[in-house]
Amino acid sequence: MGHKGISVTGLVCSVAFLLLPLHSAYGDVSYSFPEEMKRGSVIGNIAKDLGLVASRLSARKARVDPDGNRKRYCDINLSTGDLIVAERIDREGLCGQKASCVLKQELVLESPLEVQHISLHVQDINDNSPQFKDEVIKIEISESAVKGVRFSLDEAHDADIGKNTVQSYTLQRNEHFILNVKTKSGGRKYSELVLDKELDREGHHEIKLLLTAMDGGSPQRSGTVVIHVTVLDANDKAPVFSQAIYKASLPENSPLDTVVVTVSATDADEELNEVGIINVQDRDSENNRQVRCSIQQNLPFKLVPSIKNYYSLVTTGELDRELVSDYNITITATDEGSPPLSSSKSVQVSVADVNDNPPVFEEQSYKAHVTENNKPGNSVCSVTARDPDWRQNGTVIYSLLPGEVNGVPVSSFLSVNGDTGVIHAVRSFDYEQFRSFKVHVVARDNGSPPLSSNVTVSVFITDVNDNFPQILYPAPEGKSFMTELVPKVAHGGSLVSKVIAVDADSGQNAWLSYHIVKSTDTGLFTIGLHSGEIRTQRDISESDSMKQNLIVSVKDNGQPSLSATCTMYLVISDNMAEVPELKDVSYDENNSKLTSYLIIALVSVSTFFLTFIIVILAVRFCRRRKPRLFFDGAVAIPSAYLPPNYAEGDGVGTLRSTYNYDAYLTTGSRTSDFKFVTSYSDNTLPADQTPRKTPTDFAEELGDSNGSLPEICP
Fold it and tell me: Do 125 and 432 form a contact (C-beta atoms < 8 A)?
């Protein structure tokens, strides 16, 4: 049993209906276990994992149902609460080459109703062996092939994944070939047959090798294929006579055409043109047994008489397998009897291939368009080359010609699938770094020696709107503080300033438009939609605020549109000296709010202060008839200490009791106010004739030893 992971969350709802409780819970529990477990094998105890009582599973009619249309691959043991395998689970059949294989099942319980989701993570085991597509790989190699030439071999496939798939290849030990194992993008491995020692057709005209593919599982599995190498002849042998010296004796009277001596030479090579040998026999005698052979016309072959009844079928010109690969030759033999008799026989001749054609691309050049910010690994384009030769001579392998793009190796930009010719992006492209580049793709066949051709692929990067407009003027806040001066005499339509912005994108993604989104006076200034020029809409008036702030938005024309904003500070003045502080020109919404708060606070404090003053005045008005003397700490001065002329009394002294006054005497001060408020008698002293006495006079009358009495002022 594999690793077990549990995650349970629940949502409980209860509804009273016909006195039957309905309980619905939604959770999740997951298990990991290997494929191909036997039926009845325990995956885990789901009752324990979900906190269920195993003894109540039967009463609650617990069961496992498939999620969706899948089979029910597991079941529950109602006695123990174990989750067990119900059906054979084949990971390859269910999930193929997917890295993760998850089966969804549901645990359903009744009374109350409860549903739990079960996730079964099926782990791969090494239950499949590597397999080759064919039982035999046929390769034809000329004996003139040089050491180091390579021949691609078919890849072995394994239905397992990870380390359980093909990990290595081995080649049967031999004296001519070694094996080179390479890795494709994605981790798949394939092999190449490399010639390590030159071939000799006269020694071995064919070689059979055993190629083995092995996976990395435990126990390890393998698959094999036979490599059948046919060695093609090359004219590497010189003719050799049967003996070094021939001696012959000839009488002087020998007639013309007398055979003097017969010499013979042999060549171990195959005759480029010895196609076949035909032997003809006729059982008649004399002229009736003389036979003439012929073939049909318009064929690049002819029959050449040899010794006795043997004929050689030879070529009369070059053969091109790519034009005609097979010939059906009818040979007719006719005797010289009377009447002549004849018979015919058909011979099938197949033209063997030589690597005389290089791969040819379908297009003279290719163009690919890639959107910037692409994902690495995405397909860019595909190139295709055809080779009319046969087998390995016509097998095309693609590669990138080494080169550089802006000083960087081309392999860091693109890669090409050697088998399919599909070109993939290795990295994400940025239109602002470079907009196009060229690479060269090479198509090489697998012949000996190999032939190749190349083609140019032009890659064009397509722009996307991924750059915000950049405002050059005015400079962003915090870097500098720039203020434009607007003359007071400016008329409507006058050019005040200009917002300058650029966009690193291209095309419509770089088309900019300008908009005023906020201003101190909405009707005073306007901005050119595409020029960014700020102009007055009307004449400047005296009522216009000296300080004008404009917030300008710059938008591009991309989809979606990107924008940037800036603040333009304007001062309506003919002289900068008229502006006390430029720092107050900057517009800040937070500062504006703060100013509002300060104004509200000031009004509140002022209102409170005025209210306090009114209350004080009201209190004073109510107590006007009572004389009050205030010293520090609100200390009252008794009337006995006042001069006789100012003492209270009915008709006593200069002032009558109906004359109210307030005396403000402050300790530590040489001057204090003494104010007459109202007089109800014509005989009293007018208010504007308030008597004055020096502090010395007060000191004498009040008996002030310090002589520091307040001065009385009107």
Answer: no
β-sheet with 660-664: strand ranges across: 629-630, 660-664, 672-678, 712-713
For residue 237, count CB atoms less than 10 angstroms from its CB and return exposed for 0-12, middle for 13-18, buried for 19 or more. middle
Cis amide linkage into residue 112, ω under 30° from 0: yes
pLDDT at 215 over 70: yes
Closest listed residue to residue 515, CA positions, set 493, 534, 497 = 534
CA 606-609-614 angle, 5° bins: 125
Q: How far are the Cα atoms of 645, 693, 700 from residue 639, in angstroms, in the given order?
A: 11, 17, 16
Task: Using pLDDT thresholds of 50, 70 and 90, give the confidence band for residue 647.
Answer: very low
Q: Do domains 4-123 and 136-232 have the same CATH topology?
A: yes
CATH number of 361-462: 2.60.40.60
Measured distance CA(258)–CA(206) in Å, rounded = 45
The 10s digit of each residue's pLDDT in 658-701 is: 333 333 333 333 333 433 333 333 433 333 443 344 444 433 44
Q: 470-587 — its CATH code?
A: 2.60.40.60
Name the CATH code of domain 4-123 (choices 3.40.50.620, 3.30.1380.10, 2.80.10.50, 2.60.40.60): 2.60.40.60
- d(Cα 300, Cα 303) in Å, to the nearest integer? 11
Banded pLDDT at 45 (limits 50, 70, 90): very high
The answer to whether 635 and 663 have CB atoms below 8 angstroms apart is no
What contacts 287, CB < 8 A, 6 or more positions away?
Answer: 335, 336, 337
Separation between Cα atoms, residue 696 and residue 670, nearest integer Å: 11
Rounded mean pLDDT of 56-68? 87
Q: What is the CATH number of domain 136-232?
A: 2.60.40.60
Domain ranges of the chain: 4-123, 136-232, 272-352, 361-462, 470-587, 623-713
Q: Distance between CA atoms of 688 and 696, rounded to whole angstroms? A: 23
Backbone angles phi, psi at 691, to 5 degrees: -70, 145
Residues 6+ apart with CB under 8 A from 366: 381, 383, 441, 455, 456, 457, 458
Sort residue 598 into left (φ over 0), alpha (ψ -120 to 50) or beta: alpha
Residues forming beta bridges with residue 515, ordered by sequence position = 553
CB 460 within 8 A of CB 429: no
| Residue of higher predicted confidence among 387 and 629 | 387
Nearest to 712 by CA among 692, 696, 698: 692
Amino acid at 432: E
CATH topology of domain 272-352: Immunoglobulin-like (2.60.40)
Cα first-last separation, the chain: 112
3-state secondary structure 419-438: CCCEEEECCCCCCCCCCEEE
Q: How far is CA 160 from CA 164, 216, 502, in A?
A: 6, 10, 56
Contact 311, 293 (CB under 8 A): yes
CB neighbours of residue 712 within 10 Å? 22
Tens of pLDDT, residues 136-168 = 998 888 888 888 888 889 889 999 998 999 999
Q: How far apart are CA 461 and CA 441, in angstroms?
A: 19
